């Protein structure tokens, strides 16, 4: 059993390196991924280890970069494209949503796009509204894209390896606050894949089910630990991939706990987590609920700059704790 | 009929080549006429973008390509598809929403792709295929395939960011790519005079540090000759070329077009520059073809289209049952 504690940046780099070693057709392209090592240091020393032909620095041209990745993927390569901030995918959306996502279906299965688009998302760095968004629902609402949201280094490694193997376009959303901190669990050596579309039950309890994505899994975990000491036991579920979405563990858990809270960083309105609520509402497990479903999500505002404003815009540990306590105490 | 016609060489190099050039231009013309007819008779739905009048451009370009060389195409893409060697029956079947259509009825006119002939697909988004062709050229370079990727696009696409970003990437990475603009003078209703502040679109090549050349897009020989130079340059690793083929679409942009933005006289002037009789006259003069042979080739093209339509009409309609399973390619175990 490995006891290696890596950060998410290290785990992502390790997964990319394994894929580079396994398959000559895998390459990385993006802005400043080469000598600079990536804006968040994710590609790190890969440029020196694999050379400028496989770690390809690009001009600032997101539409062109993603389009080139799509074309290369159609022609025998397996590109990993890094977009420096997920906010900048707006520049590349035609290639993501109109081209990559639709090519296999629209062209009758004649071609497919084995491309991974990795990009950091989320708030908490003081970078304000154009560098801090959580865009999970943008991608999750496009048929033809698989969307992965890892919450910890070990999952990031296994999920990224599976994403690179996948013959379809995968959007891999990394939370930038997780890049530099080690996870709770060690990162295994080797090249084991974590299949896409399989949720993870992070911990089990009997009083409440929390479904959270990305960094909200970590925040919720802290709440679970704290409330456990007070005798409130919580099941925490991390979908890990939001497209496809694995709801089975959620149904099974709600049947035991009778209470459901969902937590996401992005704005509440038309957010991804609403899909979890909608599927629950239409399922036979709905009758097991003894409390209204609680939704915690970001405010319906652009992410503001000042630290206290930014903090107020997205759910914090204290918010999750208060909401969890309330739902368990008020609904018995 | 599975055509594998490529890397023919110069349209006037031999009788065989002249025959090919004429046959493919006529196939495109007859195909487009058949589409208009099917549309008029209510047999085809959606919309159509016809390339009548522009046949020499894709034909000349593709005669300089191998079957492995790749292309990306546009909403006005039937000609590119045919010139690269696509099967006519499967094309018509796609327009009619049939199971045997290139996309199984899921794509229609604007999304025909044909892997066997290196066609990465038509595109419903103006400029959408240009970065994709750059990526195909990047893959060719990385995998040392020796193939060239050609992106066909119209004058309208040259004002898209996608054109700029892809042209720059191709130039800085010296990709084996050809940016082939069919300047048919209008992006829907916007004339090039309104949409550009330069007279010669090929001048844009300078801005990327690549050659930009103008050709008469209604002259299959001139198109081929420019294409061949660009292909040679690309294969030698010297990078991309911008070719601007000056041509004209006789028909409206799509079915909704009432031609309010141009005059009947202008359309008539361009009809006189029809690429097909122009090539016939030249091939006969150079003794590559006789009038009789030319008549026969034109008839052959008509017969091929009629046969394709007849077969496609009889084919099974696309079935909605498999739609959900068609979104993703299956992950192999």
Automatic annotation (TrEMBL), chain A:
Example of a GO MF term: oxidoreductase activity
The keyword Amino-acid biosynthesis is assigned to this record: no
Cofactor dependency: thiamine diphosphate
Record-linked InterPro entries: THDP-binding, Transketo_C/PFOR_II, Transketolase-like_Pyr-bd, Transketolase_C
UniProt KW rRNA processing keyword: no
Alphabetized PANTHER family for the sequence: PYRUVATE DEHYDROGENASE E1 COMPONENT BETA SUBUNIT, PYRUVATE DEHYDROGENASE E1 COMPONENT SUBUNIT BETA
The name this protein goes by in its record: Unannotated protein
Source species: freshwater metagenome
UniProtKB/TrEMBL annotation, chain B:
GO molecular function, one term: pyruvate dehydrogenase (acetyl-transferring) activity
Cofactor(s) recorded in Swiss-Prot or TrEMBL: thiamine diphosphate
Record keywords, A-Z: Oxidoreductase, Thiamine pyrophosphate
Organism, as annotated: freshwater metagenome
Annotated SUPFAM superfamilies: Thiamin diphosphate-binding fold (THDP-binding)
Pfam families: E1_dh
BP GO annotations: pyruvate decarboxylation to acetyl-CoA
Signal peptide: none
Name this protein carries in UniProt: Unannotated protein
Domain Dehydrogenase E1 component: 25-320
